[in-house]
Specification:
There is one protein chain. This protein has about 425 residues and is α/β, with parallel strands linked by helices. The chain has two domains: about 190 residues, Rossmann fold (3-Layer(aba) Sandwich); about 240 residues, NAD(P)-binding Rossmann-like Domain (Rossmann fold), CATH 3.40.50. The protein is about 40% helix and about 15% strand. A six-stranded parallel beta sheet has the order 3-2-1-4-5-6, sandwiched between helices. The N and C termini lie far apart (about 55 Å). The structure holds uridine-5'-diphosphate-glucuronic acid. Uridine-5'-diphosphate-glucuronic acid binds next to helix 9. The site of uridine-5'-diphosphate-glucuronic acid has 22 residues, from helix 9.
């Protein structure tokens, strides 16, 4: 079913992807954002986030007339069959999701929504939010539907247009079906359910993914103890289709704008509802502990002998929370940098997606615009984001620059044999050189 009138409120990475992709599917979409500067730029197809394919889709949408950007939220919804709320739900006090933006917009649109419109919660919101928004709207003719997104940053357009599932939940099945129909052109299993189940499906997915990563990082520690190779262990278990080997690469801990926020929000939901979920708490704590352990490895190798990193300059490669994005929100690289800094290290960081200085980070580290500048006078190098271009650095030259020829490869990105040939010592996660080489 094409050509529905859709409003999308909020043009962050979820909202903009949703708007541009729904326009590409043939619907007429008006995206509203309170930020006039952003709206102005989007009208010129200038997209601030690093998301492959998105600028092109925005341009196509604008050219076809199916995509429009406005600042006026009530105006955007006044003609819409379906209104998507794609608003920020940051971590609030005590870890709970902060719903202030969702509530403010609900209040703003309640009187202007067309008769029998459908309002969709697309942002990740706690269980019960569909009901809460319905109460705020106070419009018996309007149904609130939960339709969580499962988009990965850096793959958002691809994930939207090739979803592995579409989850839509509401008490009113007809309203849920109306939302599902927007995706009719996509070939994906549809899970039609109630709102609470749809809301929980989102949290359960991100919790499970985080749990896999905490498992992989702990497993890596165990492998180090026994000189085993974590890659082989994961391959060894991954052939079992009940386990699989996806999303199990050890790293510097998991981060980003979603996994930390959503696991903490779910923990609050569990606490408030009196449900014990020890795995969830362990998943979060394991991440923190893992990062402390990685920092101890750097201290052990680089400390002048007093257990500190005073007077030690380190080259950090990568700051974004994963490769392919410039997003620093809850980046594990920054968490590790803070721990290194707390031990006294002086940090010079290079990230291919960040060329500018960042005043908000100036107390923590200096951002440089080439890897070579980071290596100058550095004692050792720490790889924190898996940018593939780091593999192609001139590692022989790097060996000549580092005081201690050690590369802490906390993404298991590099070929240890390659580094060995460059007279550099390689320290990966869960893999010894002998096993990996
Ligand atoms: C995550 C989920 O993967 C998406 O399915 C979900 O829709 C999204 O959150 C969301 O809730 O909106 P994203 O935050 O883009 O997506 O990032 P991921 O690709 O999941 O990576 C999260 C963290 O885990 C990163 O720090 C990454 O480096 C780390 N990671 C990932 C590993 O350390 N090892 C892996 O094997 C995979």
């Amino acid at each position: 079913m094409r050509d529905r009138h859709v409003a999308v409120i909020g043009t962050g990475y979820v909202g903009l992807t949703t708007g541009a992709c729904l326009a590409a599917l043939g619907h007429r979409v008006v995206c509203a954002d309170a930020d006039p500067y952003k709206v102005e730029r989007l009208r010129r197809a200038e997209v601030d986030i690093l998301e492959p394919g998105l600028p092109e889709l925005v341009r196509e949408g604008l050219d076809s007339g199916r995509l429009e950007f406005v600042q006026d939220t009530p105006g955007a919804v006044s003609d819409a069959d379906v209104v998507f709320l794609c608003l920020p739900t940051p971590m609030g006090v005590g870890g709970a999701a902060d719903l202030a933006a969702v509530e403010a917009v609900a209040d703003e649109i309640r009187t202007v929504l067309p008769y029998e419109a459908v309002v969709v919660n697309k942002s990740t919101v706690p269980v019960g939010t569909a009901e809460r928004v319905a109460a705020l709207l106070g419009r018996p003719d309007v149904t609130v539907v939960s339709n969580p997104e499962f988009l990965r940053e850096g793959h958002a357009v691809r994930d939207f247009l090739n979803p592995d599932r579409i989850v839509v939940g509401a008490a009113d099945r007809a309203a849920a079906q109306r939302v599902a129909d927007l995706y009719a052109e996509l070939d994906a299993p549809l899970v039609l359910t109630d709102a609470a189940s749809a809301e929980l499906a989102k949290y359960a997915a991100n919790f499970f993914l985080a749990m896999k990563l905490s498992f992989a990082n702990n497993l890596a520690t165990l492998c180090e103890r026994f000189d085993a190779d974590v890659n082989d262990v994961i391959t060894g278990i991954g052939h079992d289709p009940r386990i699989g080997d996806a999303f199990l690469n050890p790293g510097p801990g998991w981060g980003g704008s979603c996994l930390p926020k959503d696991t903490h929000a779910l923990l609050t939901v569990c606490e408030e509802s009196g449900v014990e979920f020890p795995l969830l708490r362990a998943t979060i704590e394991t991440n923190v502990e893992h990062q402390r352990r990685l920092v101890e490895r750097v201290v052990a190798g680089c400390s002048p002998g007093d257990g500190s990193l005073h007077g030690v300059r380190l080259a950090l490669l990568g700051l974004s929370f994963k490769a392919g994005t410039s997003d620093l929100r809850d980046s594990p690289a920054l968490a590790i940098a803070r721990l290194l800094k707390a031990r006294g290290a002086e940090l010079y960081a290079y990230d291919p997606a960040l060329s500018e200085t960042r005043p908000d980070l100036s107390d923590l580290l200096t951002i440089v615009d080439t890897p070579e500048k980071a290596f100058e006078q550095a004692r050792a190098c720490v790889i924190l984001t898996e940018w593939p271009q780091f593999r192609d650095l001139d590692w022989e030259a790097v060996a000549g620059l580092l005081e201690t020829p050690v590369v802490y490869d906390f993404r298991n990105l590099l070929d240890p044999a390659r580094l060995h040939r460059a007279a550099l010592s390689w320290e990966g996660i869960g893999r010894s050189f002998a096993m990996a080489g």
